[in-house]
Structures are given as structure tokens and as C-alpha cells.
Specification:
Elements: H1 2-6, H2 8-12, E1 21-24, H3 34-48, H4 52-71, H5 81-88, H6 97-104, E2 109-112, H7 117-121, H8 123-134, E3 138-139, E4 143-146, E5 152-156, H9 160-171, E6 181-186, E7 191-192, E8 198-199, H10 206-217, E9 221-226, E10 238-241, H11 245-255, E11 261-264, E12 271-273, E13 292-294, H12 298-304, E14 311-318, H13 322-332, E15 337-342, E16 354-355, E17 357-361, E18 365-367, E19 371-372, H14 373-385
Parallel strand pairs: 1-2, 2-3, 6-9, 6-11, 9-10, 11-14, 14-15
Antiparallel strand pairs: 4-5, 7-8, 12-13, 15-17, 16-19, 17-18
Helix pairs in contact: 10-14
The structure holds cytidine-5'-triphosphate.
Cytidine-5'-triphosphate binds next to helix 12 and strand 14.
Length: 389
């Protein structure tokens, strides 16, 4: 499973040149079908741009791993190349394709150890991983769970998408936001009516998550305060989960002081039920109404307590008079920028993968075409940190 799974990673990748290498060190490689070998050959070609002869050595290496599974016990006595690489840490001159490639490449190296739990937790392995880190290599923690050898614990190969994200974080963007601290909010809030029901909105968190992800992949230290969104939060960001507007207020205001930029993409409820029943509200004949009270406006509070040099960016979702209403929010909440979108425009709004926004600052308005939310995030971050004169 290990080897075949790891080759889903290049298949998931865009056609970018790859400057990262993932090593894989499971002894339980699983057997590969001829189709999988062909796929692997194609993936390797596009991944490393190797010529046929060198590729052959790579294929030989993977064949050896497969054979070790066929003939060896689960805790194989046959050490795979990455296992040897980690077990020995030094010397690197093992004459194996992987270790010699690691020696020869000046690019960033990422190691994804996968093996039996006790082997992984062994101090020798741990010490050697630390040595690898000392040489600037990044070690991906293995996943936890049921291992092929029957043990349960740390040692599983992470999902291919996890490995892919480690690579993309390395190569997808320039690290032009390194050293910046950014706070992003995303998703809806939920305002409880009783233990069963709540008031919320249609926000899925996609826009805020895209901003958090792109900022992190560009090197920033990102804190993401998120309401209960449908999307999975991006990797490599510090995630703080909240439910209500009040919880979001607490989380954001306690973390805002040292941030270079705060980007509030969350769709915070403006009202909450004044009284929250501790028991389920039973129905009665006739209508009922719920008395609502205002929540705190988090962005307004941030505008009133803005730190020297801090950049405050809000979002504004409108269905009419978008520019005029958004400009009013920019003024009223003391913002540096507001990202306005009209829910009624095709390709904008809740749940879509694209957005159509206008970036409004005190100086100018920039209307962006319809584009993927991650691209919107790039433009937005450029406008904050690298505004064109
Ligand atoms: N916002 C906030 N706290 C609230 C309400 C909104 O921080 N209690 C923030 C949102 O995260 C967003 C911005 O304010 O960045 C604008 O939100 P929006 O709902 O468009 O505007 P409102 O100010 O709530 O005004 P209205 O609902 O009347 O349009």
C-alpha cells in the first residue's frame, strides 16, 4: 500500500517543477499492478524529469521494496532505503539512489517516515530524525492508526493530500510574507436558541480559509479563528474553533495585539436570541417569536483599538448598493480595506469556489474579475502588503 499510495501524490500535483522530495520508508510496501508501475513511471518522469536510465534505478529501488514485502515478515529485516537513511543518518554515502539523490540535491528535503510504531518511537530513530532536521530537512509526523503489521499507533503514511500540501507549501508561492503575523476569521457563527436549535447563515468558510492558506503558504504565521464551517481548515495555520459571535469576539480580541494584519472574512451574526433556554422549547398552538439582541461588532472594536501599523481588512457582503454600503463600513469601522462582494452576482458569495470582489481602500477601488477564491486571496494579500503606488 505504501509505495502505491505515495505515488498518488505526484498524480495530484499540478504541472509545476518539483523541488521537493518525499522519501517513504515503510517495509510493508504492498505489491503493485503493472498498471500502477506504468502510472508510477509517468509520475516519476513528470515529477523528477529523469531520463530513462536513472528512472530505471528508481523503479528497481521500488521493486526491491515490493519484494521485501513478499518474502519478509511484517517487521521486515530488509531495510528500505529511507529506513536506512534515517537509521544511519550518517554516513549518507550509502550508494542508494535515494540517499545519493539527497546528497546531490540542494533543494529542500522532506521526510515522511512510515513504519512500525515501536521502530518509529525507538530513540535511535528519533535521534536520527533530529539529525536530519538539523541538516534542514523537514520531518512529517506519521499518521496514527492501525498499521499493516497489526500494531496500532504512530507510523502510518499520511494521506497523499497531506504529503502534497507539504510539497505545495514549499514550492507554490514565494515566501514574501515571512515574518508577518496574520489573524484571519472565517465561517459563520451559531447563536443558540435552546440546546437543539440555533440561528446561523450560509457561510461555508471557503473565502477565509483560502486567505489563511495562501498567507501561510507565502510564509506568514497565521492564526485562523473559525466558526463551524463545512470546509476542512487549511494545514499549517493555528486553528481556533469557536461557535458564537461572543466566542469569536473573545478569541479575536485576545489575539489581535501583535498581528500585522487582521482579515475578517467571517460572517458574524449581528443578532442573537436574548434568552437561551436550557431545555428544548416545546411547540404550542399558534405563532411564536424570539426576542433578539445585538452581538458585539468585532471589526468595529478592532478599528477602535487598532495598533500602530496594524492593517485591518473587513469583508462586506451586500445584495444592493454594494460600493456605497461597503465604503460606509470602511469609514464607520476605521478599516484600511474592505473586500466587497454582491451575493447576487454569478460566481460570487457563499459556497462557491470563485468570487467576484472589489477591493476598496481609502485611496482606490480595484474591481477583480471572477476568479478562484485562492487567487482572490493572493490579490488581497498583495494589496495589503505590497500596494502598488
Ligand atoms: N463583523 C464583525 N462583527 C459583527 C458583524 C460583522 O466583525 N458582529 C464583520 C464581518 O466579519 C465583516 C464585516 O464586519 O468583515 C462586515 O460584515 P457585514 O455583515 O457585511 O456588515 P455589517 O457591519 O454586519 O452590516 P450589515 O449586516 O448591516 O450589512
Amino acid at each position: 500500500i505504501g509505495v502505491t499510495t505515495v505515488f498518488f501524490v505526484p498524480r495530484l500535483m499540478p504541472n509545476d517543477p518539483v523541488e521537493a522530495m518525499i522519501g517513504q520508508m515503510t517495509s510493508n510496501a504492498g505489491s503493485m499492478s503493472p498498471e500502477a508501475v506504468v502510472q508510477m513511471r509517468e509520475s516519476m518522469n513528470s515529477l523528477f524529469g529523469l531520463d530513462g536510465s536513472v528512472l530505471h534505478q528508481y523503479l528497481d529501488f521500488f521493486k526491491r521494496v515490493v519484494i521485501s514485502h513478499d518474502f519478509g515478515p511484517s517487521l521486515s529485516s530488509y531495510p528500505t532505503p529511507v529506513m536506512q537513511m534515517i537509521a544511519r543518518a550518517l554516513p549518507w554515502t550509502l550508494g542508494l539512489m535515494l540517499t545519493t539523490t539527497v546528497l546531490a540535491c540542494t533543494c529542500k528535503k522532506i521526510i515522511s517516515p512510515a513504519m512500525n510504531t515501536r521502530m518509529f518511537e525507538n530513540p535511535i530513530t528519533q535521534d536520527n530524525l533530529k539529525i536530519c532536521e538539523g541538516y534542514g530537512m523537514e520531518v512529517i509526523s506519521p499518521a496514527n492508526g492501525y498499521l499493516a503489521c497489526g500494531d496500532v499507533g504512530a507510523g502510518k503514511m499520511p494521506e497523499p493530500d497531506v504529503l502534497l500540501q507539504y510539497i505545495l507549501k514549499e514550492i507554490q508561492y514565494k515566501k514574501d510574507l515571512a515574518g508577518k503575523k496574520i489573524l484571519v476569521t472565517a465561517g459563520p457563527t451559531r447563536e443558540a436558541i435552546d440546546p437543539v436549535r440555533y440561528i446561523t447563515n450560509h457561510s461555508t468558510g471557503k473565502m477565509g480559509y483560502a486567505v489563511a492558506k495562501v498567507a501561510a503558504y507565502r510564509g506568514a504565521e497565521v492564526t485562523l479563528v473559525t466558526g463551524p464551517a463545512e470546509e476542512k481548515p487549511p494545514m499549517f495555520v493555528h486553528v481556533v474553533k469557536v461557535e458564537s459571535a461572543r466566542e469569536m469576539f473573545e478569541a479575536v480580541t485576545s489575539k489581535s495585539d501583535d498581528k500585522d494584519a487582521i482579515i475578517k472574512a467571517a460572517a458574524v451574526a449581528d443578532y442573537r436570541p436574548k434568552f437561551v433556554s436550557t431545555e428544548k422549547t416545546k411547540k404550542a398552538d399558534g405563532d411564536m417569536s424570539i426576542e433578539l439582541e445585538r452581538t458585539d461588532d468585532i471589526l468595529k472594536w478592532l478599528g477602535e483599538h487598532k495598533k500602530e501599523g496594524q492593517f485591518l481588512c473587513g469583508f462586506s457582503m451586500e445584495t444592493q448598493n454594494m460600493l456605497e454600503n461597503s465604503r460606509k463600513k470602511l469609514e464607520k469601522k476605521n478599516l484600511d480595506m474592505i473586500v466587497a462582494n454582491n451575493l447576487k452576482v454569478a460566481g460570487a458569495g457563499f459556497g462557491t469556489d470563485t468570487n467576484v470582489v472589489t477591493l476598496i481602500t481609502k485611496e482606490r477601488e480595484t474591481q477583480l474579475e471572477k476568479m478562484p477564491k485562492e487567487e482572490v486571496a493572493e490579490h488581497l494579500l498583495d494589496e495589503i502588503f505590497f500596494p502598488q503606488a
